[in-house]
Amino acid sequence: MVEKEIKSIDAATNEMLEKAAQEKVRTVFDRAAQMKPCPIGGEGSCCSNCAMGPCRVPLAKNKTETPEEHALRTGVCGATAETIAARNFARKIAAGTASHSDHGRRVVEAFKLMAEGKTKDFAIKDEQKLLKLALDLGVEIGNRKNEEIALDVAKVCEKEFGKQDGELAFIKNAPVKRQELWRKLGVVPRGIDREVVELMHRTHMGVDQDYKNIMLQGTRAALADGWGGSMIATEIQDCMFGTPTPTLSEINLGVLKEDMVNVIIHGHEPALAEMLAVESQDPELIKYAESKGAKGINLAGMCCTANEIMMRHGVPIVGNYLQQELAIVTGAVEAMVVDVQCIMQGLQEVARCFHTKLITTDERAKITGATHMQFDEHNPRESAKAIIKAAVDNYPNRGKNVRIPNIKTPLIAGFSHETINYLLGGLFRASYRPLNDNIINGRIRGLAGVVGCNNARTTHDGAHVAMIKELIKNDVLVLSTGCGAMAAAKAGLMVPEAAKQFCGPGLAEICETVGIPPVLHMGACVDNSRILIAATAVVKDGGLGDDISDLPAAGAAPEWMSEKAIAIGQYFVASGMYTVFGTTWPTLGSGEFTNHLFKDMEEMYGGKWDFQPDPVQAAKLMIEHIDKKRKALGIDKSRERVLYDMAMRRELDAV
Ligand code: CUV
Ligand code: SF4
After folding, report:
1. Atom of ligand 2 nearest to the CA of 205
2. Domain membership of residue 366 as a residue range
3. How far is CA 329 from CA 205, 325, 404, 461, 575, in A?
4. How many domains does the chain have?
5. pTM surpassing 0.70?
6. Is 303 in the pocket of ligand 1 (CB under 6 A)?
């Protein structure tokens, strides 16, 4: 665990932390200072899977521990440090996969209601994508109506969750070689729910007690997330709400408005957020807000829901994970509307110090003390209206202690896989060819996915920004999602002008020619599936090997905290990606199991885990990996030439 020196690199966050301190409001930053992490649990060495424990098998302090001594250090049932660390790790995968996938399931349910005509408020926004999905899923197109096709697509997707055998449909989206490898290793997911259930079973007391075998199922569940639940969520959301295209927006606490009703939507699933985006523009509701003395209604997003509606509608983002309580600390938030995932219970305590109404909207996620207003999928518009009305009604209750930091940054987002395709190849011959060519000729050194959360155990946004800057300085194009993307945006890295200032010469040239930022915002956490699809598209375009593991590419989550991040990391690794995490690593209590993740996995999958809390060092590891892959592809020399050319050109320019 690295001790953090400063709380945040973000000025708006620090300003609100001061306000919170003045007003004696306790936030996650204070709680983190007070509650030290448990060192035994932190390294994955605490087992509470049965009532003979909890048992603790921490890493031996004594480095000279013999294998015999090591074997004697077990839980009451005899479970070894390896088994305990593996079970704990695997259960994080199960929880992460369950979360993304349950999100996917809800989206499919709403999509089905729409296709059946049971809700009039949603529609098919991207017909192209619907047809592509139908083809992928073997749904007949013929000259059937879109709604009929959609209904069948919904039914097939729905079955993916409860399927008992066979293979998940989207596995076929992966490179052929990858699919074969998965089949050989026996890790192709059969059904999403089944893999999660089996993983929970196998990690129950007294079942699977071979860490390698546990991780086979751990991998199968993770793949059921990336190439299953998450991918379903992304694809169906695109169908129903539109596939993102480049959008200009703004981010940070400064998007809140002093003279308007501020409604924040926080969480993950976009259905309610979509409706709030529409209803916040409703003339009648705006008039109602004016009747209460406000100039209008200002909707803004928080966490991954923010990414969803910013990507599709340009709705501004208030902030990322560690800023959720601080938004309320401004004193200017009438309603904080939440659904599922990454919602701190601390919000309620902070909301109590202000006039803010914390509104839960999903029966799966209630918070003691908060107001519950159930979102009705049959009647999304009415639900959204009621919520906004409650926020407006709360406007006159605003206190005197309002202070909104005057800090916000512009960003361009909306880089779905399809958009990147068009931007690079043009509308009529959309393709990754130019990207591949520029990787091969060395202007772009490689690709990096920098994703994931914030974590109160490390400087807010610090690792994301330091890592990304190091990568783009070295000509690595960065794809980003989640709270990491927001950190990059706040640091000004998601505008095309960032290229000149922060990138190496090769990447800067590409960004300037195409007019893209050096860090491409691809969406929410479930949209990490877009990175899988993009990586596969690069493979299929040719010239860079025949599997994801051949690509000069790497992944990272330098400030991860959620179990979802572990599921994502595992499906990245199993898809062939070198993946490095920061802040803390949850298996260090077992050297042997950690070795399995950090070494054996490379032999199995061509991708592996790594841990490096220093973000610049971690970026260097990623670059090293990228260079290793370039060398294996025989394209290491081209890069030297390009850089040489550029240096010469600059010398000439200087003359
Ligand atoms: Ni799903 S999972 S803190 S909001 S990225 Fe942000 Fe993103 Fe992690 Fe949560
Ligand atoms: Fe202890 Fe074994 Fe029970 Fe875990 S399962 S708590 S190691 S006895």
Report:
1. 5
2. 247-397
3. 44, 6, 9, 19, 42
4. 3
5. yes
6. yes
